[in-house]
Queue: 4 jobs
Job 1
Amino acid sequence: MPRIGVLFDFDGTLTLPGALDFPAIKEALGCPRDQLILEFVESQPPDRRAMLMEILEQREAEAARASLPNRGAEKCLLTLKERGIPVGILTRNSLRSVKEALNRFTKIALDDFAAVVTRDTSLPKPHPEGVRRVADQMGLLPSQLLMVGDFRFDIIAGKRAGAITVLLTNGGGSVMIQGDPEPDYTIRHLEELPGLLSRLGVSGLDRGGPLVSACPVS
C-alpha cells in the first residue's frame, strides 16, 4: 500500500447527518438563507460578530451533544488504523464541538487522529488551506491525501489543494452543483472506503498526482 493519509470532514461524514440544523441556526443568527454562516458572521462589525459567534458556538455545542457516529464510521477508522494509514479531520466547526461529539464514539478518540484542523486554526473550506495544513502535519504531500466528505465544499477544498477527493453520499444523491469539480470517487457509506483504498493500492496512488477520472463505487 502506498504511503497515504485519509482526511475526513466531520459533521455528516464521521457523525450522523442531521445534528446541525442549519436553517434554525441561520434564523437564530439573522443570517440570510442564501448566505454561508461563517462568512456572514465574519462580515459583521466586531461587536456584533462576537455576539453571533457566541450564539453559533452554543448551537454547535448542543448539536455535538446530540450527535452520533455515522454508519460505519468507527469500523472504518479502526480498519485504517490497523493498516497503519494516518487519518485526520478537517471541519468548519470548532475544536470544542469536535471534542464534544467524539465523546459519543466508543472506540475512537481525539488522539487517534494524526491531525485535526478546525476553523480555529485554518481558513474554512472551501479554501484549501486546511487540506494543506493536514498534509504538512502528516508529513505528506496534498496529492497523497484522500479528502472524504459529504458536502461540496469538501470536494472543492480537496481539489484546490491537489488531493484525491471522495464524495460520501450517505445513501443519497450527489450534492455537487453545476460548475463544481467532479469528485474522483463516490461512496455511499463509510464501510466502502477500506475497499476503495485496497483498489487504489494497485492504481498508482504513490506517483505524486491526483487521479482525475471519476470511478463510482457501487
Job 2
Amino acid sequence: MSFVGNLAMQVRGGTGLRAAGAALVDLVMSNISAAQVAACTGGVLLSGSGTVAVSGVSIDSRTLKQGDLFFAIRGPRNDGHRYVADVLARGAAGAVVAADYGVPPDFPPDRVLLKVADTHQALKALAAHLRDQWQGSLVAITGSMGKTTTKEFSAHVLQTSFTVYRSPGNYNNLFGLPLALCGLSSDDQVGIFEMGMSAPGEIAEMCRLARPAVGVITNVAPVHLEFFSGTADIARAKAELAEGLVAGGTLIYNNDDPLVASIGSSFQGHRIGFGLAETSDVRAGNIEPAGLRETRFNLTAEGRTRPASVPFAGRHNVMNALAAVALGMHFGIDLDQIIASLRHLRQNPMRGHVLTFEDGFTVIDDSYNSNPRALKLMIETLCGLPCSGRRILVAGEMLELGHEAGSLHYECGACASRCGVDLVVAVRGTAREIVRGALESGMSPGRAYFFTEVDPATDFVTRAVKPGDIVLVKGSRGTQLDRMIRALKASYAERMN
C-alpha cells in the first residue's frame, strides 16, 4: 500500500526509482478507509462512513488534492483548523481535527470528520501503522550537511538493483517524515529517508516511527547552535540514529569526522566507515579535480581498488558519494556496477548546480542552505577550479548559529582571502563579518562588499560578472539568494550543456 499526501512519484518496472519529488502532485497509491484511519489513530468518526476511501494525506490546504484526508495541525504560527472549510471546498475526503474543535452545523454529511486527542500525534500514529505494514528495508540518513545529496546519490546507486523510494525534498522533521513514510508502497524494496533535527530527542522519536534497519551519519558541524551548546551536543543528538536502529541494524558513518567516528566505534552492530583515512572500509584516494563537472579518485572497498569519478567538483561530493558506495556494498551491489552508476549522478537544483551562460561566465548555485563548514568547503572547491576570469563568492548570512555567529562568519571571510577569492559579496546581517574577516586577512577593500538586502546585491553582481568568471552563490535559505539566481537567468541567456 502506498499512502502519502501530495508527493510526486514515478514508477519504473523492476528496478528503479519510485521517487517522491519536490513537486506536490497527485498520488500513486491504494486507498485506505476512514475506519482504518480511525482505528490506528484512536479517533472517533463523527461524520461520514467508515467505508469512505481516502486517497492521500495532507497538512497543507494549498497543496491538498481531491480525495485527501486533511490533518488540521496546530503550529506556532498557524492553526490548520481554520482551513477545514477550505479543504472541503477543494474536494478533501474529510478532516482529522482535535477534540476541542467545534463542529459546524453545516458540515457535509458525506465527508469524513474524525476527532482525535492530538492531530499531530494522530498523523504520526497513521505513519507508524503504515510503516508496520511495509516489508522492505528502510534507510535513514542524518548529519549536519549533505543529507539530501547523500540521499539522492544513494537512491541513484541502489536503483540499479532495487526499486527505491526516497522521501521528497526536505521532508525530514516530525511533520515531514510521517507524511513521507505514508508514501511507502508494497512494490518498494528500499526506502531512503532524511532525518533532521533542531533539538535533542527528535531523531529518537523519528526512529521510533520509521524503525530504520540502516543508518547513515554524514558529519557533525556547527549548525543549529541557537539550540545546542556546541558540536558535542549536536553529535549526541545525531547518535540517536545509531541507538534507534532495529536489532541487527547497520551503521554507515563518516570515519574522517572525529565526532562521527566516535559514534561508529561505539556502535555494537555491523558498521561500515567511509572516508579518506586508511582505516575506512570504503575510502577514496588520489582525489583529482578535473573541472567543474568531474572529480576523479581511486575507490577502495573490500580489498579492491578501482578508478572512479563523480560528475561534480569538490572533495565534499566525493564524500557524499562514498556514503552511497558503502550503502550499495551493504546491499550487495557489485563494486564495478556502483562505480559505473557514480558517473551519472545528478545534483538537485540549488545544491551545487552548475549554470553556464552564453556571456562566458559560470554560476555554482548552492543557494539552498549554508553553514560555516559547508561554506569553507565550497570556497576551497571554487579556488581549486581552473578559471580564466575571477573567482567570485556571494555569501549570504548563515542562520541559527547562536552566540558564535559573528566569529564563524569572520572565519569564512578569512578563508576566502587565504584561498584566493577575487571578489566577495556578503549579503544581510551577520554576513558583514565575512567582509571584515576577508579584509583583515589581507583582501583589498575594493574586492569585498557587504549589502544589507538581496536586491541591491543582485544588481551589483548582475552588472559585475564578466566572461571567464566563476560565481559561487551560497547562503541560508532565509537569505533568499535564489532570487539572485533567478535575476541572473533573466538577464543572461543560459548555455545548454
Job 3
Amino acid sequence: MYWTEFLTIAIAHLFAVASPGPDFVIVTRQSVTGGTRLGVWTSLGVGAGILVHVSYCILGVAILLSQSETLFNAMKYIAAAYLCYLGLQSIRASFHQVSTAENGSVTETSFKQAFWSGFLTNGLNPKATLFFLALFTVVIDINTPTFIQVIYGIYLAVATFIWFAFLSTVLGKPNVRQFMLQAGLWFERGMGIVLILLAVQIVLFA
C-alpha cells in the first residue's frame, strides 16, 4: 500500500533535485574546478544533508521550525551567510588564480572540505526545510510506520547523491572542464556571484 506514496515522493524529489539551486551550483563549481572526485565528495555531502532534513521531519522538529518564525529566520540567515561566504571565497580565489585542476591532484583535506561544503549547503537550506516539511506532512500519511519513513529518507539521500554524482561525472570530464575553464577567472567569479544571488533570494523569498 506504500508504493503509491513512494512513487509520489520519488517524482516530487526528482523535480526538486533537478531544479537549479545552491546544491547544483556548489557541485558544478567543485566538479569543474577540482574534477569528478571532488564533485562526488561534494555530492556525498549533499546526500548526507538530506538525512538531516529527514531526521528532524520524522522527529517532528520540522513542524516546530515552521511554526517558530524566529527559529526559521535564524536558519534562513545562517544559510544565506554561508552561501555568501562560499560566493566571496570563489570570487577571491579567482583573483589569486587558484585552481585545484591545475595542480593535478586534490588533497585529503580538500575532499573533507568538499564534503562539508555539500553538507552545509544542503543542510542549512531553508527551502529544503519547507520541501521536506511538505513531503512529510502532506504526501506521507500520518499513519505510515516510522521504519517506512526511514526507508523513504534513505532513498531520498541515496537518489540525491546518485544524481549529483552523475552530474559530477559529466562536468568532471577533461573536455567539459577545459571548455568551462576557458572562461578562467570569470567562471569562478560567475559561480561566486550566483551563490551570493542565491543567498539574497533565500533572505527575501524563503
Job 4
Amino acid sequence: MAKPLVAVVGRPNVGKSTLFNKVVGKRIAIVEDTPGVTRDRIYGDATWLEYNFALVDTGGIEPARDDVISVQMRRQAELAIETADVIVFLVDGREGITAADAEVAEMLRRSRKPVVLGVNKVDHIKYADSVYDFYELGIGAPVALSAEQGLGIGDLLDEVVSYFEKNPEDEHPEVTNIAVVGKPNVGKSSLVNALLGQERTIVSDIAGTTRDAIDTPFTYGGRDYMLVDTAGIRRKRAIEDESIERYSVIRSLGAIRRADVVLIVIDAAEGLSEQDVRIAGYVHEEGKASVLIVNKWDLIEKDTHTMNEFKKKLSADLAFMDYVPMLFISALSGQRVGKVMQQADFAYAQNCLRVSTGTLNDIVSEAVMVTEPPSDKGRRLKIYYATQVSVKPPTFVLFVNEPELMHFSYKRYMENYIRKSFGLTATPIRLLVRQRTKNAPL
C-alpha cells in the first residue's frame, strides 16, 4: 500500500520548513554514503504512531503577488495540494490572521482535501488566546504548536494520521500499477500511446488523483494492468522551464507511491540530467521495481559501441541503483517498445521474490566463509542467522552480536552476495542489521 502524502502549505515565514525539519530531519531516506542521489529538500519520510508517510515542504503562497517567483512558488504549492492525501495549513500565531491566510484557506476549501490547521509560534502563554481567532478561517479546529521548540507537534500529527486509512484494502488486488515518470518532453505520452496501442484492450479511462493524471486500465498478455500516467507535467506552463522540471518531482512522487513498477523515461539526446537522477532517487527510496527507458534512441548517431558506452555512463550516474534494467527504445517508431512490458514484468516478479529461510542462511554462511566479517579492537562481528521479513522490495534481516561492528563496506558486500546468489538483478533490496536477543534461536 502506498504511503500517504502530507503537504505543508501556508504563506511565507510561518515556519513550514522548521516544521518539516522537525518531523523528518532524522528520517530522511537518503544516506550520506549513497552516491549519486541529489535532490531538493522538499520531500522526506516520516513516522508517527506506527504510520509511515511522506511529507512535502512547499514555498510560501502569496496570492496577491504576481511576480515570477511568487507565481512559481504558488504553482508548486498547488501541485503539492493536488497530490496530497492530507494538507497541513500552517499559520503564524503571533501575527494573527492575514489576508493571505484567508486566501490560502479559500484555496484549500476548494481542494476538498482533509486539512489540519496548525497555529505555529505559540511558544508563550501570551499567544495562547490568539489561537481561537483562527476558527474564523473556517478550516476547522486549530492546533497550537511551536515548531522551533517542538511543542504541540505530536498533537498536530495525531490529527494528520487520523485521516489515514486504518485498514487499507487494495482496490485492485490483481492489477499491477505501472507509473510512467520523467521530465517534460522526454516522450512519456508517446510511450503511453505505444503501450496502449498494440495488442492491448483499453477498458476505460478513470480520473486519477490529480486534475491532470489519468489512470488507464489495460490488458497485456492476459494480465490486467493500470497505467498511472503523469500527464500534467507534459504541459507547458507560463513559467520557466527549470521550474516546470522542479514541479515534475512533486507530480512524479504521487505516481511513484501508487505504482508497483515505475518506467523512468529519459531523453537519449539530452542524456541523464540532475532532475532525472532526482526522480530515480525517489523510485529507489520507495523500493519500487523499475525500468530505465532511454527514449528517442532512433535520433542518436550510432556505431557498434554506442549503446555499451551509453550504458556505462548511465550506470556511473546511477551508481546507487546499478540494478535497474535499461531499454533503448523509440516510442514513435516502435523500436523495442514490445520489450517494455517484458522487462516491467520481470522487474516486478523480482521485487516480489520470497526465499526460504534455510536457503537464505546457507547463502549467508557461504558469504561469511568467502570473506570473514570485520573486527574492531578485538571484537569480531558474528552473524547468527538471517530471515526475509517482507517483499516489495525483498527485505532481509541479519541478526548479529553487535550491530555497530557491521561496517558499511561489509554490509554492501553481503547485500551484493545475496543479490547475486538469488539472481536479483532488477530490483532494489533492503538489508537490515539487528542485535540477536538472548531468546532468539541460533
